[in-house]
Amino acid sequence: MKKLIILLLICLASQTIFAQKNVAVYWDASYSMKDRNLDRELKFLDNYFKKHTEANVILYVFSNEILLKEIYKVRGSQWTDLKTELQQTVYDGASSYAQLFKDDADEFLLFTDGVQNLDQLNPPTTKPIHIVSSLDQTNTKQLKLVSDLSSGRFVYLSNDFGIQGEEKKEELVTNRDDGFIAGTISGFEGKLANVSIVNQSSNNGTASDPQGKYKIKADEGDVLIFSYLGKKTVSVRVSKADIINISMADIKENLDEVVLTAEAEKEEFVNTGNTTTSERSIGYAVESISADEISALDTDVQQAVKGQFSNLFLPNDTAIDDIDLSQFLGRGRNMTILLNQNGLVVVDGVPQEQSNSEFGGFRSRAVSTMNPDLIESITYLKGLAATNKYGTLGRNGVLLITTKNAKISEGVSDAEAIPLGTTATYSGNAEIMSKLPNVQYIQELTKSQTIEDAFDTYLSLRKDHGDSPIFYLDAYEYFKGWNNPILSERILSNIYEISFNDPKVLKAMAYKQQESSNFEDAVLTLERVLELQPKMSQSYRDLALAYHYAGQYQKALDLFNRMEKKSNVGNADFSGIYKTIFNETKNLIAQHGSELNTVGTDQKFMRPIKYKSRIVFEWNDLDAEFDLNIINPQNRFFTWSHTQSENSQRILQQHQQGYGLEEFYLTEADLGEWKFNMKYYGKTSNDKNPTFIKITTYNNFGSSNETRSIKVIRLDEKDIEQTVTKLVLN
Questions:
Q1: 381: helix, coil or strand?
Q2: How confident is the model at residue 166 (pLDDT cuts 50, 70, 90)?
Q3: Which of 78, 177, 413, 713 has the smallest C-beta neighbourhood within 10 Å, fewest atoms?
Q4: Phi and psi (nearest 5°) for 390?
């Protein structure tokens, strides 16, 4: 009898063990979940554990990453410890589903609103996934699709959910409406319009609208064919899901490999106006004349230049006194009359006041009185690569004039050196820019003695500032000082939650991510910017550069090639930033050519271009107005203006093409300390948010020992000149 009792007990214990359910619970703690109806979701779990009285539960609390992982044992429907943990959840950050569904569980319970910003919800479908949401703003269609594909259920806890009842009341999203399938079609460049969709079973067809959306009548089992010029055709068999989103890949052309051979060329050296260097190493078109080639009959510098350089023209005007060398026409000749066609004159390394060929434009007299006898050499730079050092001012060509005084100064000591340049000496008193803004919530945060106190203060301040993306950008900058990247990046990710459709804010976020070397995160952000702004040229360039930074070199080159060939880039116009794309493509190949498949890449990108330093300024808002004062080692300064009053045509082009950047180059001849000051004037729009500037400085650009630093500044205070960066070349 005793043995029989023991045997019965063992059987009962075995039944209990085998009846235990292994469940993974994924609890979304992102910022958008802060208003969840916690009582309803806990009541759902209470009913669940009444049905499954014995369960082994592994809990994951997540937002932009896994925040908590705990194991609980539910026995006799008692789950108090698990419930207490869920009630203590702090909601902050964006949602990432990438780390979920990796457990060997019998089924999954996912509590989320389905907002997909960091990544897509694409779980495995081998185990049932039951998804629960109590928020009005819920991605119901996607969640229903995921649960259906996994043979699970989507439980939408509606407002009339009765928490007093013993039985769960569920509102399920209905299946396909009237037998129609709908969805969105996209490619690498964004949403695709005019994609042909044909139901192969019925021969009915339709096309996607400008937003890439489509709707077509189809039954379960029908085959839909999606076709688009330049894309791989996609065939999809209709399941019981009512939403089918399609991503179409590009058709890649297979080109035969071309091997080029050439005889060795004799090395030639040219004068670039400031130094003598190898023509092969500089990689652009240069013509130069020395003092010996300037005739004694030339009474002014205009006569000294005439006829000396190909594709350089001076106007033929009977009023000779009105002609100045600054009115020369180079690359801009015969271009649209709406833009200035005059080139740039640089004397001893300092850009001179530029003439404007527009109707009624200014006529400079900067070098009209220069004596040709004092000139050591004149160099004409042409082509986009040659003018990069001087930004947009040099787009029509640059004349570099080196005087004999400047030549002599190369061989004297610093104490005897003659100051270069003819522009005004800088006498301003620029302030040093502070990294943290002087705003109330930053002042409150800086009172904190510990990171725990700071986070509590942040949560309190969030009640008043939680809808402002600038609050999170500033809070992120503050929390970086605590050297806790997990926490600071979680705070920054809130921007995905509240500004996922705001490209200006997302660009500022990407600037911050790249400054902190979070290059993979920046790729996700800039992919979203391209999705939002597929017609803006800089969206493509920024993403290609982000791929480069993130080590995704082939993706970077493929995208640069698309820009060069204008393939699958919509109607984007890259002419305004072509010099930037040109140099960055060359640099990518120079740095990582051995890791790249360059078949199909234009040969002009294969020869590297090198500079002592390259500095790139980018801004997140095209309506921002500011002056950039560039102060050379001799304390002479040059102003690059980004205002409607001084540069209206440039700003118009920026808006038309969608870009906001400028770059400058320094060479071996530009040694010493360079200062870059900015004076902010606000915006031409009603947007009151600050402007964010990304400053990228490359040392030894294009060389194997190239280094890069990224700095992000926040422009808010108006009419105050501030030093934003310094650069020392030695």
A1: strand
A2: very low
A3: 413
A4: -105, 15
Sequence-ordered list of residues with C-beta below 8 angstroms from that of 134, at least 6 positions apart, any chain: 36, 37, 38, 40, 41, 157, 161
Domain boundaries, the chain: 21-156, 177-247, 269-409, 431-729
- The CATH number of the domain covering residues in 177-247: 2.60.40.1120
**Mean pLDDT rounded to a whole number for the chain:** 81
Question: Reduced to 3 states, what is the DSSP secondary structure of residue 364?
Answer: coil
- One-character DSSP codes across 292-348: GGS-TT--SHHHHHTTTSTT-B----S-GGG--GGG-BSTTTTS-TTS--B-EEEET
H-only helix segments in 578-663: 578-592, 644-657
Tens digits of residue pLDDT in 380-430:
876 544 455 566 667 677 888 888 776 544 443 333 332 334 455 666 667
Give DSSP secondary structure letters for 495-509: HHHH-TT-HHHHHHH
Instruction: Supply 167's token pair.
Output: 């039985």
CB atoms within 10 A of CB 49: 22
Cβ 308 vs Cβ 375: under 8 Å = no
Which residues does 436 contact at the CB level (< 8 Å), separation at least 6? Answer: 442, 446, 474, 477, 478
Quote the tokens at residue 683: 């915006």
- CATH superfamily of the 269-409 domain: TonB-dependent receptor, plug domain (2.170.130.10)
DSSP code at position 46? H
Average pLDDT over residues 555-573: 95
In which band, very low, low, confident or very high, does the pLDDT at 310 lie, cut at 50, 70 and 90?
confident
The whole-model pTM stands at: 0.68
